[in-house]
Amino acid sequence: MIDSTHKSEAPVAEGSPGASRSHYWEWTSADRAPNHSYLVPGVLRALGDPEGRRLLDLGCGNGALTAELAVAGWEVTGLDFEESGIERARQAHPGVTFAVHDIYQPLPESLRGRFDAVLSAEVIEHLFLPRELFARAREAVSAPSTIVVTTPYHGYAKNLALAVTGKFDGHWVPGSDYGHIKFFSRRTLTTLAKECGVEPYWWHRVGRIPPLAASMIMTGWIRGPAPTGQEDDGSRGPASA
Questions:
Q1: What is the C-alpha separation between 192 and 53, in angstroms, rounded?
Q2: Predicted confidence (pLDDT) per residue in 81-92, tens digit
Q3: Which of 10, 111, 117, 164 has the most C-beta neighbours closer than 10 Å?
Q4: Domain boundaries of the chain, sorted by first residue
Protein backbone atom coordinates (compact mmCIF):
# COMPACT_ATOMS: atom_id res chain seq x y z
CA MET A 1 0.00 0.00 0.00
CA ILE A 2 1.42 3.36 -1.02
CA ASP A 3 0.94 6.36 1.23
CA SER A 4 3.07 9.49 0.82
CA THR A 5 2.52 10.60 4.42
CA HIS A 6 5.09 8.05 5.55
CA LYS A 7 7.88 9.02 3.17
CA SER A 8 10.84 11.31 3.53
CA GLU A 9 10.42 14.78 2.09
CA ALA A 10 14.10 15.80 2.36
CA PRO A 11 15.39 17.16 -0.95
CA VAL A 12 17.81 15.12 -3.03
CA ALA A 13 21.18 16.73 -3.58
CA GLU A 14 21.73 18.44 -6.89
CA GLY A 15 23.39 16.23 -9.45
CA SER A 16 21.24 13.13 -8.88
CA PRO A 17 19.66 12.68 -12.33
CA GLY A 18 16.55 10.52 -12.40
CA ALA A 19 16.12 10.55 -8.61
CA SER A 20 13.04 11.77 -6.80
CA ARG A 21 13.85 15.05 -5.08
CA SER A 22 11.48 14.13 -2.27
CA HIS A 23 12.76 10.55 -1.79
CA TYR A 24 9.25 9.48 -2.78
CA TRP A 25 9.72 5.74 -2.36
CA GLU A 26 11.71 5.86 0.88
CA TRP A 27 9.60 4.70 3.83
CA THR A 28 10.42 6.46 7.08
CA SER A 29 7.73 4.96 9.35
CA ALA A 30 5.90 1.70 10.03
CA ASP A 31 2.89 3.60 11.39
CA ARG A 32 -0.71 3.06 10.37
CA ALA A 33 -1.84 5.41 7.59
CA PRO A 34 -4.83 7.72 8.21
CA ASN A 35 -6.88 6.05 5.47
CA HIS A 36 -6.68 2.70 7.27
CA SER A 37 -9.57 3.89 9.44
CA TYR A 38 -11.94 3.30 6.52
CA LEU A 39 -9.94 0.93 4.31
CA VAL A 40 -9.32 -1.84 6.85
CA PRO A 41 -13.00 -2.46 7.77
CA GLY A 42 -13.96 -2.41 4.10
CA VAL A 43 -11.16 -4.76 3.07
CA LEU A 44 -11.93 -7.24 5.86
CA ARG A 45 -15.58 -7.26 4.82
CA ALA A 46 -14.62 -7.82 1.18
CA LEU A 47 -12.21 -10.67 1.97
CA GLY A 48 -14.63 -12.62 4.13
CA ASP A 49 -13.81 -15.38 6.59
CA PRO A 50 -10.02 -15.69 7.15
CA GLU A 51 -10.04 -19.05 8.92
CA GLY A 52 -7.43 -21.35 7.42
CA ARG A 53 -6.90 -19.08 4.42
CA ARG A 54 -3.67 -17.68 2.99
CA LEU A 55 -3.56 -14.12 1.65
CA LEU A 56 -1.04 -12.34 -0.57
CA ASP A 57 -0.81 -8.55 -0.12
CA LEU A 58 0.61 -7.10 -3.36
CA GLY A 59 2.24 -3.71 -2.79
CA CYS A 60 2.21 -3.88 1.00
CA GLY A 61 4.32 -0.74 1.53
CA ASN A 62 5.44 -0.54 5.16
CA GLY A 63 3.33 -3.54 6.16
CA ALA A 64 0.95 -1.71 8.50
CA LEU A 65 -2.23 -2.84 6.73
CA THR A 66 -0.77 -6.32 6.18
CA ALA A 67 -0.22 -6.66 9.93
CA GLU A 68 -3.81 -5.65 10.66
CA LEU A 69 -5.01 -8.44 8.38
CA ALA A 70 -2.77 -10.90 10.23
CA VAL A 71 -4.30 -9.79 13.54
CA ALA A 72 -7.74 -10.41 12.00
CA GLY A 73 -6.78 -14.04 11.39
CA TRP A 74 -5.29 -14.19 7.91
CA GLU A 75 -2.07 -16.09 7.18
CA VAL A 76 -0.68 -13.24 5.13
CA THR A 77 2.46 -12.53 3.08
CA GLY A 78 3.30 -8.97 2.04
CA LEU A 79 5.28 -8.08 -1.08
CA ASP A 80 6.67 -4.70 -2.11
CA PHE A 81 9.46 -3.56 -4.41
CA GLU A 82 10.74 -0.88 -2.01
CA GLU A 83 13.33 -2.29 0.39
CA SER A 84 12.87 0.50 2.93
CA GLY A 85 9.20 -0.42 3.30
CA ILE A 86 9.94 -4.12 3.75
CA GLU A 87 12.68 -3.31 6.27
CA ARG A 88 10.24 -1.21 8.31
CA ALA A 89 7.60 -3.94 8.06
CA ARG A 90 9.92 -6.69 9.26
CA GLN A 91 11.12 -4.61 12.19
CA ALA A 92 7.62 -3.65 13.31
CA HIS A 93 5.88 -6.97 12.61
CA PRO A 94 8.33 -9.87 13.02
CA GLY A 95 5.52 -12.43 13.09
CA VAL A 96 4.38 -11.60 9.55
CA THR A 97 6.12 -12.71 6.35
CA PHE A 98 7.40 -9.93 4.08
CA ALA A 99 9.54 -10.05 0.94
CA VAL A 100 10.97 -7.63 -1.61
CA HIS A 101 9.50 -8.19 -5.06
CA ASP A 102 8.79 -6.01 -8.10
CA ILE A 103 5.17 -6.35 -9.19
CA TYR A 104 6.29 -6.09 -12.83
CA GLN A 105 8.20 -9.37 -12.48
CA PRO A 106 6.66 -12.88 -12.32
CA LEU A 107 6.33 -14.35 -8.84
CA PRO A 108 9.08 -16.73 -7.74
CA GLU A 109 8.17 -20.41 -7.81
CA SER A 110 8.07 -20.46 -4.01
CA LEU A 111 5.02 -18.16 -4.04
CA ARG A 112 3.13 -19.51 -7.05
CA GLY A 113 -0.15 -21.24 -6.35
CA ARG A 114 0.19 -20.86 -2.58
CA PHE A 115 -2.64 -18.45 -1.78
CA ASP A 116 -6.40 -18.54 -1.35
CA ALA A 117 -6.96 -14.80 -1.86
CA VAL A 118 -5.08 -11.73 -3.09
CA LEU A 119 -5.26 -8.10 -1.93
CA SER A 120 -3.82 -4.97 -3.48
CA ALA A 121 -4.69 -1.79 -1.57
CA GLU A 122 -4.16 1.66 -3.12
CA VAL A 123 -1.52 0.39 -5.54
CA ILE A 124 -2.99 0.05 -9.03
CA GLU A 125 -3.29 3.84 -9.46
CA HIS A 126 0.54 4.04 -9.30
CA LEU A 127 1.25 1.48 -12.02
CA PHE A 128 2.27 2.28 -15.58
CA LEU A 129 1.35 -1.33 -16.41
CA PRO A 130 -1.74 -2.07 -14.29
CA ARG A 131 -2.42 -5.43 -15.97
CA GLU A 132 0.68 -6.77 -14.24
CA LEU A 133 -1.14 -6.60 -10.90
CA PHE A 134 -3.76 -9.07 -12.15
CA ALA A 135 -1.06 -11.24 -13.73
CA ARG A 136 0.69 -11.55 -10.34
CA ALA A 137 -2.63 -12.33 -8.66
CA ARG A 138 -3.33 -15.18 -11.06
CA GLU A 139 0.15 -16.59 -10.50
CA ALA A 140 -0.43 -16.55 -6.74
CA VAL A 141 -3.46 -18.87 -6.75
CA SER A 142 -3.89 -22.50 -7.71
CA ALA A 143 -7.65 -22.44 -8.20
CA PRO A 144 -10.38 -19.84 -8.81
CA SER A 145 -10.02 -17.39 -5.92
CA THR A 146 -10.94 -13.99 -4.52
CA ILE A 147 -9.08 -10.78 -5.30
CA VAL A 148 -9.72 -7.46 -3.56
CA VAL A 149 -8.44 -4.24 -5.15
CA THR A 150 -8.83 -0.78 -3.63
CA THR A 151 -8.09 2.48 -5.40
CA PRO A 152 -9.16 6.13 -5.10
CA TYR A 153 -12.71 6.55 -6.34
CA HIS A 154 -13.51 8.75 -9.34
CA GLY A 155 -16.99 9.45 -10.63
CA TYR A 156 -18.89 12.29 -12.27
CA ALA A 157 -20.27 13.82 -9.06
CA LYS A 158 -16.92 13.76 -7.27
CA ASN A 159 -14.99 15.15 -10.22
CA LEU A 160 -17.58 17.92 -10.63
CA ALA A 161 -17.42 18.74 -6.91
CA LEU A 162 -13.62 18.97 -7.09
CA ALA A 163 -13.83 21.37 -10.03
CA VAL A 164 -16.61 23.55 -8.57
CA THR A 165 -14.86 23.90 -5.20
CA GLY A 166 -11.52 24.78 -6.77
CA LYS A 167 -9.79 21.62 -5.51
CA PHE A 168 -9.16 20.01 -8.87
CA ASP A 169 -5.43 20.83 -9.09
CA GLY A 170 -4.80 19.86 -5.49
CA HIS A 171 -6.48 16.50 -6.04
CA TRP A 172 -4.45 15.54 -9.11
CA VAL A 173 -1.10 16.85 -7.71
CA PRO A 174 0.68 16.90 -11.09
CA GLY A 175 3.94 18.12 -9.52
CA SER A 176 4.30 15.03 -7.33
CA ASP A 177 7.16 12.63 -8.08
CA TYR A 178 5.60 9.34 -9.17
CA GLY A 179 2.25 9.59 -7.34
CA HIS A 180 -1.06 8.65 -8.96
CA ILE A 181 -0.97 8.13 -12.72
CA LYS A 182 -4.20 6.11 -13.23
CA PHE A 183 -7.62 7.41 -12.19
CA PHE A 184 -10.23 4.66 -12.20
CA SER A 185 -13.99 4.75 -12.18
CA ARG A 186 -15.99 1.63 -11.45
CA ARG A 187 -16.55 1.20 -15.19
CA THR A 188 -12.89 1.45 -16.20
CA LEU A 189 -11.66 -0.83 -13.41
CA THR A 190 -14.34 -3.38 -14.31
CA THR A 191 -13.25 -3.32 -17.95
CA LEU A 192 -9.59 -3.84 -17.03
CA ALA A 193 -10.33 -6.61 -14.53
CA LYS A 194 -12.46 -8.55 -17.00
CA GLU A 195 -9.81 -8.21 -19.67
CA CYS A 196 -7.36 -9.82 -17.24
CA GLY A 197 -9.51 -12.81 -16.31
CA VAL A 198 -11.16 -11.36 -13.18
CA GLU A 199 -14.93 -11.07 -12.74
CA PRO A 200 -15.91 -8.27 -10.31
CA TYR A 201 -18.93 -9.18 -8.20
CA TRP A 202 -19.04 -6.76 -5.25
CA TRP A 203 -18.26 -3.06 -4.89
CA HIS A 204 -18.09 -0.81 -1.86
CA ARG A 205 -17.20 2.88 -1.53
CA VAL A 206 -15.51 4.10 1.65
CA GLY A 207 -14.31 7.33 3.25
CA ARG A 208 -17.14 9.91 2.90
CA ILE A 209 -20.62 9.54 1.41
CA PRO A 210 -20.70 7.28 -1.69
CA PRO A 211 -20.87 10.00 -4.40
CA LEU A 212 -17.78 11.69 -2.90
CA ALA A 213 -16.05 8.54 -1.63
CA ALA A 214 -12.31 8.61 -1.03
CA SER A 215 -11.77 5.04 -2.27
CA MET A 216 -13.63 2.15 -3.83
CA ILE A 217 -13.19 -1.53 -3.06
CA MET A 218 -13.62 -4.10 -5.80
CA THR A 219 -14.02 -7.77 -4.94
CA GLY A 220 -13.53 -10.06 -7.90
CA TRP A 221 -13.27 -13.72 -8.80
CA ILE A 222 -10.02 -14.85 -10.37
CA ARG A 223 -11.43 -17.32 -12.86
CA GLY A 224 -8.24 -19.33 -13.02
CA PRO A 225 -4.50 -19.21 -12.30
CA ALA A 226 -2.01 -18.09 -14.92
CA PRO A 227 -1.15 -20.84 -17.42
CA THR A 228 1.89 -22.79 -16.22
CA GLY A 229 5.03 -22.81 -18.32
CA GLN A 230 4.09 -19.54 -20.07
CA GLU A 231 4.68 -15.87 -19.53
CA ASP A 232 1.40 -14.17 -18.72
CA ASP A 233 1.01 -10.45 -19.36
CA GLY A 234 -2.36 -10.40 -17.59
CA SER A 235 -4.32 -9.70 -20.74
CA ARG A 236 -5.56 -13.23 -21.39
CA GLY A 237 -8.60 -14.85 -19.92
CA PRO A 238 -8.41 -18.07 -17.93
CA ALA A 239 -6.66 -21.10 -19.34
CA SER A 240 -8.90 -23.56 -21.11
CA ALA A 241 -10.23 -26.35 -18.90
A1: 26
A2: 999 999 999 999
A3: 117
A4: 35-222
